[in-house]
Amino acid sequence: MKERLQKHRTCLLLAVYAAAVLCMAYSFAVTRTQCSDYVSIDGDFQSYNVFRRILAGQLPYRDFANYIGMAPVVCNLPFLALHNSFTASLFVTNFTACVLFCTAVLLLIYLTTASLPLACLVSALLPKFVHSQILLRLLGARYGTVLTELFEGLYTPGNSMRVARSFLPFLLTAAAGLCLRLLRRRGRKADILPYLSRPRFMTAAGFVLGLFVVWSNDYGLACPAALAVLMIVCQIAVNRAPVRQFLAGLVGFATAATVGVLVSAALCTGGHPGAWFAATGQTAAYQFFYFNGSEGKAIVPYIFTTPRLLAVTAAYLAVLVFYLMRLVRGKAQNRDVGLVFILLSLAAGTYAYVCGGSGYHCPEPIEGYGLVVCLGFLCAGLRRIPHAPAAAAAALVLLAGYYGRAAITLRPEPEGFYSEALQGYTTYEKALVGAAEATDGEPVFSLYATGLELAKGQFQPTGYDYIIHALGAEARQRYCRQFLDGDYTYVQVPSLSVNVWLANQNWDLYRYILNGYEPYYDTEYSHILKKTDAPAPQAEVTVQAVQRDDGAWELRCQSSRTDCFVADVQITYDTAFADFGSALLALGRRAVTADTTCCAQPSPYYGLALPAAGTQNIPVLMQNGTGTAVLRGAYGKGVTLQLHSAVYQQAVRPLAG
After folding, report:
1. Following DSSP, what letter does each residue of 65-76 receive, concatenated?
2. For 97, 313, 407, 611, which has the most beta carbons within 10 A of its beta carbon?
3. Among 207, 291, 283, 202, which residue's Cα sits nearest to residue 247?
4. Strand, helix or coil for residue 492
5. Distance from C-alpha of 501 to C-alpha of 496, rounded to nearest angstrom
6. Mean pLDDT in runs of 10 for the chain (657 residues)?
7. pTM over 0.90
């Protein structure tokens, strides 16, 4: 009788919690759709273009690039299939982001406190607490802004649905907990630690985690890596099963994971798993230098010279060591193992970005959820206070009532005019009405596909809705070739605030755009260029390559033409590590940096990064008959650059500032 009463209380508590979270998520989502404005480079269309293409019958990776992975699709598409529009996608993605974040917080607080009422209250309160800007008032602009932006990147979709991508370890941990509960009800052992050395379990776990590798490009791979580490640690420190048995389990884990990847890749590509492998491999190899997130430093020195990353790393290591010591001493419970798995996965996912070339620019999961774990440690002390869980449950009921009343009475006034293309209100009249009329029904080649494609009823023709997703030598060649073969009348590029970096880093395409197109129409966030028959600038340029004492190569360009133009120079080169130590510090990754630009005015986005070797075209800005570009192996003297040739190709109009 007592157990049944406790079960009813738990169900009632979870029902109240679900009502509170759903009402809060609804209010956030409705507020976001008050105005369906967007920025050309943000994640709103990065997400919706994927949904839109799938709902039109296209297959991910086979027909278009799905840069993030399948997490946003799995979490959002079932709801969006009921009503396919951009405004609906804003509602759905904001709604699911809030729900996923609250669920993750619920699990973390429960794992650290073992108190469901406290976990429910903190989880339902945290997003609203951050959204209310109380942190700014308590901590001031300096620290309050950092924390507010950190959590906003988790309970909102952000640029790339990080909350959905990083939800995978939480999903797997919750599923494992439910399986253990079922085992306990059947009278079987429900301690997870012994299973981590059993070949059958390891093989089954490998297959399940392999199925989820396509979940995202970061956490899909991080979770199998984290579980493998956890298995090895438990084998060494706790289980000590026969070595042959454990090795058989590891082989089974790896084999089954490979099979799981093949199955899931085949499912999401319509039977063409090779398309997923090709896209993933090219992306991983190309983005290292393309985004240059380590700012030209070798990876290990970059980690140790980035204070915020180093502090987070130290804190994570301390927590992990604490829990691993509990494992070694035999004091760890299932909750501890689940928490270690989540922390290991978050750390692996973050470091995949750091070592993959994007630098420390995605801190939300590792820092945000790390702070939640710290909050859980504080709440663990509250659990010992008499009647604290009951007080938390009562507070949750009041909170649910408040959220419910707010959701019912919420009536935000729409902003701007109603757009049939977006099926929502927007202030972007130029981008959605004027641009569509100005381009006379002609297709537009957009480097960032946004609302104009909706208004014109077209898709970005290359399958890469964002040019920064066209990664890999083959992908870039195909992208440029399709642009040239298509002979498009109009090109849409983002506003100059990001256009300078795009033009420098994507010179393989911009050298055609700048010579073949002229300014035509400006929208709220972009420039539309129109094909022109005006002759390209003509100039004779001589290029002299001189190696400097510091190992860098200086390209000195001379021309009789004294006005401002860009010399398109093709270079052939290769690189090598100066010594074994340099290779270790860089984790085997090489790159080249070039101090050069195609912009006529000074810009903070000066320079570009290049692959480790090959043939590339680079821009050299010419003014008063001269221009220079400096090429060097990345990481100071750790990488040596050998320049084989530097040949002038053509004169190109400079990017206007």
Report:
1. --SS-SHHHHHH
2. 97
3. 202
4. strand
5. 9
6. 71 94 96 92 90 95 92 94 94 97 97 93 94 85 87 91 95 93 79 89 95 93 94 87 91 96 95 91 81 82 89 87 82 89 93 82 90 91 81 93 93 93 95 92 92 93 94 91 95 82 92 94 93 93 93 94 95 94 90 90 72 94 94 88 96 87
7. yes
